Amino acid sequence: MRYIFTFTWLLLGLLFIQGKATLASGENSFAKDANVVIRSEETTFTVDAINSGTTLFKTTITILNDNGKHKAKLYVPYDKLSKVGYIKGVLYDANGKKIKQLKNSEISDVSAVSSISLIDDNRVKIANLTHTIYPYTVEFEYKVTSKNMMFYPLWRPLDEEDMMVEHALLRIEVPKGGKLRYRETNMPEKVKMSSTDQHDVYEWQVKNLSPMRQEPYGPALREVVPQVRTAPADFEVDGYQGNMESWKNYGLFIEQLNKGRDVLPAETQQRLQASVAGLKTPEEKIKKIYDYLQGKTRYVSIQLGIGGWQPFEASFVDSKGYGDCKALTNYTQAMLKAVGINSYQALIRAGDDESDLLVDFPSSQFNHVVLCVPVENDTIWLECTSQDASAGYAGSFTGGRHALLITPEGGKLVTTPDYSARDNVQRRTTKVKLDEAGNGIAQVSTLYTGLQQESRDYVLHNLKPEEQRKWLYQQVKVPSFEITDFSFQQQKQLVPEVSEKLELSLNKCATITGKRLFLSPNLMNKWTYAPEQLANRTTDIVRTMAFMDVDTVVFDLPAGYSLEHKPKDQELKSEFGEYKFSIKVEGQQVTYIRILQMKKGVFKPEAYTPYLEFLNNIIKGDKQQIVFVKNVQ
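^ that's the sequence the OP posted. Answer follows.
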């Protein structure tokens, strides 16, 4: 994952609490549903000026069991643009008796540099009040001042499963007459506004939030819990001023940071122009430049002050051969410009399980940058941090979501490619020759496309052959087998493909009992999971990926068997997808064809029971057996 901006989210998103330390005897009932009880929380964020702010956190947390002990550790990140004023902490036992006061000497201060970072000034102060006798209570308090006013707090007091919140409060103070932008989601009470001599004050509170768990196939917890997102109108960071009341204005700020940083040395421009001289189409030139990028550069995180948002110059990347997502995207844009192709940087919220942007609330919601290259009748998206990705493929990391194009006229919201069931295909042909003992030799050829090829893509480019073999043993869903041979081959294109070939030695592929042979025709692709029924489903069903599986399995039986029982062909259709299989027996050969297509979408809670019925019918269909009987000589 290549993320930017996350450090500051962590800094401003941490929530802390103040309150009583004693755990009342009646509150032990929480233990059956919760690992942690947030007794009270108070977060105060004061806008001191357009370029500075102060955050005060107070927290009191009761840890009920070992699963909640991570809450007894406090992490306070800081960097060049922020300063930790103080950290305080106290540990209490179950009766409220003070056990320990945190000393400054016990607060560790470590680098937050990741394994893929080369240049980074991020650091973290860590206070640890972990105890061994439950329940116990910790109190933490700290102060942070910041000169980075791109980010105001994201407040989400119930931020994990199996946690209860008794009371939490967020207070935002802005200079009198100043503007605070905010977005409330799932809040039981709206904002309360007041004022002091110097500030307009905004307050939100929640009380007695019960522990929650994500329902099967439900939305992520962050989608259903109370939260408030805040953002500035005008702001300043490291001398650069901007406005984020609209996506257009936000884009103008980023354009300001990027301005003049796309200049390449003359000799590099000439070399690039010579490399595409014989190519006729823009698509061919784009692929040539992208291949050059992948062969020349590598990803390195660079987080120094404004460097978290401003790219290094294209000339720097050209000479050093490395950069972060901003720098590599800027470098690719400069190279395309050198060969006469226009492109735009695009801010995006990347990640396989990340939520899409809140398009109605312009703010700093991004963690990554990609490149958008318009061509006639199409758009090519380039992931500039990868040395292996196919040109034009957004995939699960950046596909199917909004992005903000950075243009000279400002920011423009667009959508990245989404992938349908016919893009995300697993098409497998398996030929099995069975012997008299029910053992078999299988030749398996599988084509994976789109999102379904991503795991194979990773294995192909990141694992050694013996590691690939071990990985395949984990993936092949056959009861007893050996891999005697395997190979992968990739086709890079807008929707990439990976071909996988396996030779398997199968032990007891068919079960022989007396004179009968029992055969499960679905050899490698059985659906096995359906969640439990819920008495009161409250959240939507969310299917995040559409796909299609097509399996053809051909068995050659040993001589001397006749068909005794064959399941009826089956076809199911529902709002969630389609499933069908057919079985044909001709002499000693069995041909099984199975097609499963699942849809992507959001379905109402009342659709949960029909969804379970659909899944259970697939499970039942995939378990069907064919029965043969040995001919009497």
